[in-house]
Amino acid sequence: MIRSAFALIALFVLSLNVFSQNPGFERTDPIWIAFGVDSVEAKSHANVINPYAAAESFRVIRTSVTIPPDWEGVGICDINLCYGVGEDTAIATYPPGNTLIYIYYSKLPGRTGSATSSWRVERVSNPSQRSADVTFGVTTAPIGITQISSVIKEFNLSQNYPNPFNPNTKINFSIPNGEHVSLRVYDMLGREVKVLVNEVLTPGEYEADFNAKGLSSGMYYYSLRAGEYVDVKKMVLVK
Question: Is the Cβ–Cβ distance between 165 and 212 less than 8 Å?
Fold first, then answer.
């Protein structure tokens, strides 16, 4: 009798814990992928997490957005379909566990700037059960960087021009995928003297400006890292 009572209490507590669980939402990668010719779409994957034992209907809802006025907008692709830019809500039924979806931004080629948006997951049957807000962001062509083209097939790091130079030179590079890009300048001793790029960029060809004011004459190296791609070239500063 006592043992049965304890079993019922344990089952009741367990049912309360399951019912009180909230759905989860997490970003699964920091990399933005861009595609398209007439437009550029940058996207990031995320997991909708269903903690319940059965399939459940969830609402993915955008809670905030900051986007350049000349970009086309932000959208979402859930488990069923992709919604057009400007749609701020997506409702679908998710199986237990993790389900991959993605958030995307759409812009015209050559349009630069930074954008962010925040999203959360709510249980349709009880909206008070919801995830924390998750913020997604993308930056294209940061200050000092010019995007020349958005249609690129391979990685490339070009020789700077002019070379030798004093004190300004330009460095062109190309990335075929959305990647975190690092472009840094080092002296002959391997000391970092300038960070030109440290951003997630959409695919394209870019031109970076390097001003060597304050540096001594001599040979310098510049290194491009984008995903698994690495290349190094040297340049000469003559004053």
Answer: yes
- Rounded distance, CA 42 to CA 140, Å? 10
Q: How far apart are CA 180 and CA 203, in angstroms?
A: 11
Q: Phi, psi at residue 20, to the nearest 5°?
A: -85, -5
Residue 2 scores a pLDDT above 90:
no
Q: Identify the domain containing residue 128 by its residue range.
A: 22-139
The C-alpha angle 75, 42, 223, rounded to 5 degrees, equals: 160
Domain finish residue from 84, 109, 139: 139
Whole-structure pTM value: 0.57
Residue 192, SS3 per DSSP: strand
User: Which amino acid, 172?
Assistant: N
Q: What is the mean pLDDT of residues 220-233?
A: 95
124-137 confidence digits (pLDDT tens): 999 999 999 998 87
Q: Any idea which residue has 């020349």 for tokens?
A: 148
CATH number at residue 124: 2.60.40.10
Asked if residue 171 belongs to a domain, the reply is yes
pLDDT category of residue 69 using cuts at 50, 70 and 90: confident
Helix (H) or strand (E) holding 44: strand 40-50
Tokens of 180: 């975190």
- Say whether pLDDT at 35 is over 80: no
Does one domain contain both 34 and 131?
yes
> Count of domains in the chain?
2
**Diameter of the chain measured on Cα atoms:** 94
Same domain, 87 and 32: yes
